Amino acid sequence: MKSGVTLNGNGIGATVIYCDNPGSNFATQNIIECKGISDIEISNFLIDGGWGSLSKMHAASNKYREYEKGVLLSGCSNVVIHDLKMQYSMGDFIHCKKNTSNVQVYNTVCKPGHDSFDAWSAGDGISIFNNCWGTFINSCIKIHNTKNVQIYKNTFYTDTGSGNAGVEVMGGNVTGLNIHNNIFSTLQLNTIYQDPADGACSGKGTVSNNIFYNSPIYKGINGMNIRSTGNTETSSYSSAKGTKDYGYVADNGTRNLPVYNGSVAPSVTFPTHCSTISTVNGYVSISWTYLNATGYSIKVYNSTSKFDPSHLIYSLNTSQTSANVPISYNGPFAIKISAHDDIHNSWVYNSPVSLFTVNGKTSGAVNSGIFGYLTDAITGQPIQSAVVTLSNNTWNDTQITDVDGLYQFTVNSGKGMYCLTASATGYLNSPELPVNVTGTNTEMNLKMAKAPDYCMPHYVHLDILTNSNEKIPGCEVQIYTPNNDPNNEKPNFCAWANKDSRVSFHLTQDVTYEIVLITPAGQKYTKKVTPNLDQYTITIPAGDTAAIPAMQTVISANCTSKQINNTAAYINASYYDSSSQSSNLTFVLGTMSSGKTFVPSGISGTNDKVSNSIGVVTDSFIVTNHLGNTYTVRIRAQSQTYGTVCENVNVSFPSSNVPNVGSTYMSYFCVLILIIAGLILSKTRII
């Protein structure tokens, strides 16, 4: 991230940052890294750690990789983070450190991993509100040596594991800590506490008007002067009972609570209930709030009491939290909003419906120029964050559409003809439209068509089958472009069909490719395909196609050794995949315990790990005191055709060095000299 940047997705259910291989060692990798910057906003998408479930994630051997952050804020200021969700990740969701200050975090959801929010010597001024924090192995919020932290209107809960606490104070000066109007639901160990092992803490604060639902009561924070008032400990509580609260607990007492956002149902934020407004250029912008929903449905009626199809004037399903509704006449109207509660997999409706009255019309706030709304050509939904450009031969300007799809240009360069264009992610670029700017407000509404699912270039999947619908795993597939001769040149792409009889190539739309298929039995066929879809089935006559080629004809592993001197030797290992479809190749030197269990020796090679193994890949190990020992090189790779390939190759050394001929003769000569000397000495003694 850089200063002054807004990173905004299309909603939690529409935009996803996905970690593709969570089992790999990607520790210390920050998904969104912010260092030494200011004035940023991050919103409206999902961060998915990729594990798929908590059970898988926490069964992994590297489950405490707490250095992987969803959002890292280091030395930052003026940060707003909202409407985000993080799930199935072993790292922290949001981590603040090194005097990061003036941070607001709201409308976020964290499916528990490690810590949901950390403020570690973060400076001053942290506001955390309207969030849902889950804990599994640690704490939802950790505060260390950070001043003026406001934690309110949040829901804290435990999912499966015991967790540590809802809010944990880690030590240092935490003056200004205020924890109020939160729900702590079914936390098993602690709700708010300080761990003495983390060091002493100091400062003043308040803990007030919180609900501890089926959770331990707050017992104070060691070293802090805390004013505690109005907190409720209960085993049965909902927002419909007791005093006015700012949270929600399910009546049936389930732990996976709906996320609190200030009400138990969607609420319309504009127009305010029973207000009178004017349309802007014939439209009314309607916005609403409800956390943890991936989909919404809005319906507008021209009646305040009858909500039937005959009075329905507008209907839209969307992942956005706003809509631009065309209304061209005065009168009373009603808004019904429904949101999909993802936690309970149910729809929640605003009740009562929101009412407003239209009286009059206003124009867009453009003094001289052009304005308009950009919408989807099929659904009529506003297209947000699109790039709209207005230009002529000497001047151009660019605007970004807002949540209502509105763009506005002020033209100070005079009257005349201009060119208007628009582009947006997932849509076909609009054609160049001529616009006559007359010096007054000119309205030009644009519609854009969705881009086809097939984008160019694109990964095209080919399923290789016989005409009797039999799979052909191991079939070689060669791809030739139009300017490449299959009879005389190498293919542009080549792959072997996997166990599901599928191969994938990065092909360009509307280009005719020639495909050469070679079955495991050596049968050869030629086909053609012009891709405008992302999947094709290619059939060939049935025959001897069932056998996957023998692994040794495609993949081979070998080991040799070379003596350096009496105490050291080389072990050289090699791996070759003629299909060039292997990845994640590793060489490990070890021994076989009891002939069954492989035990790594800890001796490093020169080329232990190779991401993409092309051609012959070798690795070398140096062993000492090797005489009489047998070593095993374990070679492991991931093959597209065969899956995981693991080969153990043994190398044995003799128990002693065999002497050479020269040294043998020298030994005999030395023995002869000793015998002669002995005879001479014997004769001397006789004399």
UniProtKB/TrEMBL annotation:
Top-rank taxon, per record: Archaea
Gene3D superfamilies: Carboxypeptidase-like, regulatory domain, Single-stranded right-handed beta-helix, Pectin lyase-like
Keywords associated with the record: Membrane, Transmembrane, Transmembrane helix
Transmembrane segments: 665-682
Membrane in keyword set: yes
Pfam families (alphabetical): CarboxypepD_reg (PF13620)
Key word Membrane present: yes
Name this protein carries in UniProt: Carboxypeptidase-like regulatory domain-containing protein
Organism of origin: Methanosarcina baikalica
